[in-house]
Amino acid sequence: MSSNKKSLEIETLRGLACLLLVLYHVIGPLGGGLKIDLGSPLRVIADSMVYVRMPLFTFISGYIYSIYKIRGNDFSAYFVGKVRRLIVPLFCVGIPFSVLQAIGPGVNKDVGLVDALLSFYVPVNHFWFLQAVFIIFVFVGLLEWRGLLQTARRLYLLLAFAALVFLLPPFAVDAFGINGAIYLLPFFVMGMIGHEKVNAIRQSLKVIGPLVFMLISLALLYVAAVDRELIVDRRSLVGLVVGCVSCVALLSSNMRVQGLIWLGGYSYAIFLFHVLFAATSRFALGRLGVNDEMVLVLSGVACGLLGPVLLSSIFSRFALTSTLFLGERAARRKAPAAVAVSQS
Known about the structure:
globular; membrane; Acyl_transf_3_dom; 0% strand; 67% helix; transmembrane; Fucose 4-O-acetylase
């Protein structure tokens, strides 16, 4: 794949990942979001995709990294690019959001003000992904820079290492999202392998791949409906295998869906801002006396997807806001292109 050619299939998967993420945060974990009880079909849907949501996001990041990965000896520029892309929005979006959650009325998650101010160190919201993936980019970038990932064999050895640490007990303190980085690393490496083997995967699994994903989805729905406790442990051997297989199966599908492609172009903005718009939708409809779960979910998903798109279009017009809130290069003053989290 050419480095300057956007893959519509990958944009489709990125849009799908956005949809799954927003749907989950609208429904919420048990006791959060809309506080939907056990037994509800919406609760089953939210729980069933626990092995797919963030693995898919990370798999795509690894895939895109393999296109734009560090080249030559310019590690410093690579590092600065990741700081701009990930750490600047962490401070300019993540911490203010956490503070707003700590002091704002009508929030479901009890976040202390001190915890919110220190959320750059110990994550308290979905922004843990920024810290975790930053660690991964630095780690993998260093290996690449030192020439340690030049063969397929070494890439598979890295996958084995990532799987091993994935299965170890987590650290007691999730300093700078280290537990998240360990959780995501295998899927990132699988994305790298997926890029290297994409043609072989699509040729050999073009029929069975989508079928496998459908079967996995049905099995997860069944398990979530019968006993959600069997499915909510993400950092397990089952979670590792199901996540990796699901991502490869989706890659093999070669899907092109125009609506998802469009959403994929705004995936980073959607990730950063979707909770703000979804929560606003829930609050506004609650004040109007709307309590129908399906209406609340559909409205929350629509606002969580479209609100960030509008915000991104505004921020991208100005160099300062584009850099601070979207992590884009200051020189970019045009409407947002389909830029992956993994690009510098």
